[in-house]
Amino acid sequence: MITVAPMLLNSSKPEPTGAANDVVYRRLRAQVMHGEILPGSARTLRGIGKEFGVSMTPAREAMRRLVAEGAFTLSSSGRISTPELSNDRIEELAALRALLEPELAARALPRAHFALIDRLQSINGVIGQAIARQDAVGYIRTNLEFHRTLYLRAQAPAMLAMAETVWLQMGPTMRSLYEKLRRSELPRHHRLIVAALKAGDEPGLRLAVRADVTQGLRMLAQ
């Protein structure tokens, strides 16, 4: 296996911050977050550059940012790979979701107008289609879209950014979880979330969100 020397991610040369590394960063970030890359999958800067049609410099800068966010790990030998999370780490990230996401949902509740609820129900329909196709990546992507759409109404960008960092670190593991659960129907807690929004029920909303974001992860950690 080709590895990348640590110095490649720690070069003292100035790195560009323009369009090329931003495009690579955003596309790789989405791939990891949506479970397109499995846990423990190795990448090289040369391979990333070839995949996205860029030189080594923007590939290096994008990977540096993603390593800092926990989307990839860098070993002492220079091997870059998506994380293989221990049970303790899964429990920790599940606990973070249980703290952050019910609070985001509660802050969104006063702004949960009918258009938002209709949008969430529409996303649930797309999730159902992904389940019917056994499309793991489509399921993870639209499931996160459901949560992000709700949480944007919280108007708490720092808190949402923290939640998205957790999603990013969990992406490959969520793919493993989906394949383990082999869902055949829409997540029950999504219906409870929508019902709580319609009723203006903050305790019920917090409970439904907490159960939705932690139940499956804790099954994976068992």
TrEMBL record:
Q: Which UniProt keywords apply?
A: DNA-binding, Transcription, Transcription regulation
**Keyword Cytoplasm belongs to the record:** no
Zinc recorded as keyword: no
Pfam families from the UniProt entry = FCD (PF07729), GntR (PF00392)
Single annotated GO MF: DNA binding
The segment(s) forming the GntR C-terminal domain are: 92-215
**What is this protein identified as?**
Transcriptional regulator, GntR family
Organism field: Litoreibacter janthinus
Q: What is the lineage of its organism?
A: Bacteria, Pseudomonadati, Pseudomonadota, Alphaproteobacteria, Rhodobacterales
